[in-house]
Structures are given as structure tokens and as C-alpha cells.
């Protein structure tokens, strides 16, 4: 599938005096929830208030099936649910490159891929300037950066130092201690007061409880039509 560019804002990329940026959220998204969508919107608000960056687009990048996480639906289902969730967004897209890999793809390699693809678009459209890719991460992902042996130091240095990481802190995840101990090149936190996670939603489905107003209606229909998360 070709790299999606139809929602990238070419006018902002060409005309803004600020650095054009694209947000990339990596994760399982099993299923994608309103919380994930709110992460993008909160990040958008923060960037639009900044004097440094101009947001021109965003992407969901679901992990591959080899991630082997409990409750992980097949990548085809997760990609489709993300696509349904962003149908009415004028700036968020879904990319399936990471999800279709047979093996797990390290986050830094995913960002490398997006950097290459976005700047190929820059050349085709004669933008005349590079677009920066920034990782959009929840606090739980960022906390994992501090777990010994889980992330390669070189990967973290590139993610934080070259790309940058915009952190959206979820309720129940305290990053204060972590951030005091780690040198994060670009940090911008915003709290989301919502603790409804994908894990809880899978449990609701398994127990036959309502998930209305927790996910986009199109995603709910897709889950029930394909009998997902019932076992």
C-alpha cells in the first residue's frame, strides 16, 4: 500500500515560518480508543500554541503481530479499526508498514521509515524544506525507556535527540521521577484525565459489558462484526 499523504497540509509545510512536523504514534491499538484519538488532539493543541513547530499531519502506526502482546488482534483488524477511527479527521492517517512486517520493528526504525517517506513527499511537492518527524508517546511507553536492557541506548539517543518525543501523560502514570533522571531532548506533557485503556475495553467485551461512547461507533461495529476480543 502506498504511503498516505493526502491529509498532509502542503500549504502549511510551504508557507509557515515555523518548522513543519509530523506526529507518529506507535502502539498496539487493540482496539483503538477515543483516548488514543485525544492524544493526537491534545498534542495538536500544544504544537499549535508553540512558537517552534507547525503541525502538518499525524499517523497511527500499529505494531506487527510478532509483538506477542496479550489481547493483540491481527494487524489487519487493528489497521482497519484505526482507519475507521480517523475517517472524519482532516489530519490523522494510518500507515500499515510496521504492522505488516513478520518481525517486530524497533521504534527508531519506524521513525526512520516515516522520515524517509515524508521527505520523499517533500521533494515531490517541491516544499523546499525538510519536515521533522516526532514520536507521540503515552506516559507508559516513555516510562519503559528507563527499564534496563529494554531499549538500546543508541535508539533512545536517536529518538530523543534527533526526532523528539512529545509526551502525553495519562492518569495513573507518573513521569516526574523518570523525567528528572533522564535527559529528554524535547518534552511537552499534557494530562489526559481518562483511565479507559484498550485492556479494560477488551475485558468489557469479553464480559458482555457496554463499550458505547468509549470507541468510535464504526470501530465498535467492526469489533462485533468480526467477533473480536471474545476469548
Automatic annotation (TrEMBL):
<keyword id="KW-0520">NAD</keyword>
<keyword id="KW-0548">Nucleotidyltransferase</keyword>
<feature type="domain" description="Cytidyltransferase-like">
    <location>
        <begin position="24"/>
        <end position="202"/>
    </location>
</feature>
<dbReference type="GO" id="GO:0004515">
    <property type="term" value="F:nicotinate-nucleotide adenylyltransferase activity"/>
</dbReference>
<keyword id="KW-0496">Mitochondrion</keyword>
<protein>
    <recommendedName>
        <fullName>Nicotinamide-nucleotide adenylyltransferase</fullName>
        <ecNumber>2.7.7.1</ecNumber>
        <ecNumber>2.7.7.18</ecNumber>
    </recommendedName>
</protein>
<dbReference type="InterPro" id="IPR004821">
    <property type="entry name" value="Cyt_trans-like"/>
</dbReference>
<keyword id="KW-0808">Transferase</keyword>
<keyword id="KW-0547">Nucleotide-binding</keyword>
<comment type="subunit">
    <text>Homotetramer.</text>
</comment>
<dbReference type="Pfam" id="PF01467">
    <property type="entry name" value="CTP_transf_like"/>
</dbReference>
<dbReference type="GO" id="GO:0005759">
    <property type="term" value="C:mitochondrial matrix"/>
</dbReference>
<dbReference type="GO" id="GO:0000309">
    <property type="term" value="F:nicotinamide-nucleotide adenylyltransferase activity"/>
</dbReference>
<dbReference type="GO" id="GO:0005524">
    <property type="term" value="F:ATP binding"/>
</dbReference>
<comment type="function">
    <text>Catalyzes the formation of NAD(+) from nicotinamide mononucleotide (NMN) and ATP. Can also use the deamidated form; nicotinic acid mononucleotide (NaMN) as substrate with the same efficiency. Can use triazofurin monophosphate (TrMP) as substrate. Can also use GTP and ITP as nucleotide donors. Also catalyzes the reverse reaction, i.e. the pyrophosphorolytic cleavage of NAD(+). For the pyrophosphorolytic activity, can use NAD(+), NADH, NaAD, nicotinic acid adenine dinucleotide phosphate (NHD), nicotinamide guanine dinucleotide (NGD) as substrates.</text>
</comment>
<keyword id="KW-0067">ATP-binding</keyword>
<comment type="similarity">
    <text>Belongs to the eukaryotic NMN adenylyltransferase family.</text>
</comment>
<dbReference type="InterPro" id="IPR051182">
    <property type="entry name" value="Euk_NMN_adenylyltrnsfrase"/>
</dbReference>
<dbReference type="GO" id="GO:0009435">
    <property type="term" value="P:NAD+ biosynthetic process"/>
</dbReference>
<keyword id="KW-0662">Pyridine nucleotide biosynthesis</keyword>
<comment type="pathway">
    <text>Cofactor biosynthesis; NAD(+) biosynthesis; NAD(+) from nicotinamide D-ribonucleotide: step 1/1.</text>
</comment>
<dbReference type="InterPro" id="IPR005248">
    <property type="entry name" value="NadD/NMNAT"/>
</dbReference>
<dbReference type="InterPro" id="IPR014729">
    <property type="entry name" value="Rossmann-like_a/b/a_fold"/>
</dbReference>
Amino acid at each position: 500500500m502506498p504511503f498516505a499523504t493526502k491529509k498532509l497540509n502542503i500549504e502549511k509545510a510551504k508557507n509557515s515560518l515555523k518548522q513543519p512536523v509530523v506526529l507518529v504514534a506507535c502502539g498496539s491499538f487493540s482496539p483503538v480508543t477515543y483516548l488514543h484519538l485525544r492524544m493526537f488532539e491534545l498534542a495538536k493543541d500544544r504544537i499549535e500554541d508553540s512558537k517552534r513547530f507547525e503541525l502538518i499531519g499525524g499517523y497511527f502506526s500499529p505494531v506487527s503481530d510478532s509483538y506477542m502482546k496479550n489481547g493483540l488482534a491481527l494487524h489487519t483488524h487493528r489497521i482497519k479499526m484505526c482507519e475507521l477511527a480517523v475517517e472524519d479527521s482532516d489530519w490523522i492517517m494510518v500507515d500499515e508498514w510496521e504492522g505488516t512486517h513478520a518481525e517486530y520493528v524497533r521504534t527508531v526504525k519506524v521513525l526512520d521509515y516515516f522520515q524517509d517517506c515524508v521527505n520523499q513527499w517533500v521533494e515531490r511537492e517541491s516544499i523546499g524544506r525538510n519536515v521533522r518527524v516526532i514520536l507521540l508517546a503515552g506516559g507508559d511507553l516513555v516510562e519503559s525507556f528507563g527499564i534496563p536492557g529494554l531499549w538500546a541506548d543508541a535508539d533512545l539517543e536517536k529518538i530523543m535527540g534527533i526526532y523528539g518525543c512529545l509526551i502525553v501523560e495519562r492518569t495513573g502514570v507518573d513521569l516526574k521521577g523518570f523525567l528528572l533522571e533522564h535527559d529528554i531532548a524535547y518534552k511537552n506533557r499534557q494530562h489526559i484525565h481518562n483511565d479507559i485503556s484498550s485492556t479494560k475495553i477488551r475485558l468489557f467485551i469479553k464480559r458482555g459489558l457496554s463499550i458505547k461512547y468509549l470507541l468510535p461507533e464504526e470501530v465498535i461495529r467492526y469489533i462485533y462484526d468480526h467477533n473480536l476480543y471474545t476469548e
